Amino acid sequence: MEPIQLFELASRQAQWLTVRQNVVAGNIANANTPHYKAKDVQPFESVLQNTGIQMAATHRAHFTQSPEAAQVTEVSALDDVAVQQSGNSVALEEEMMKTGEIKRDYELNAGLVKAFHRMMLMTVRK
Question: How far is CA 13 from CA 8, 27, 48, 54, 110, in A?
């Protein structure tokens, strides 16, 4: 029997969401700071490559990728954000959309863990 790695994966995503929320909050806090460059973190998919969890290739047409060492780091803002006269590249609308995405992803993560935990408890009780 193989270990269930859903909880580890959900924990990693929660940590990633925490880092992303801190970066976005820093962007919002520095929206009026001259020459401040907006930041973001690498997508969670790059973190998944480092987890060691691999999909099983059960058919020869399935793609397989070797996990690469990808770290969550801050990256520069998107190129489509206009730089203000003060040299600041923070777009508050963009940052507010990111906070909504983070909230939605966290709620989905927590809901999946809760549902999976209930399923496990149902199998143990019987």
Answer: 9, 21, 9, 16, 10
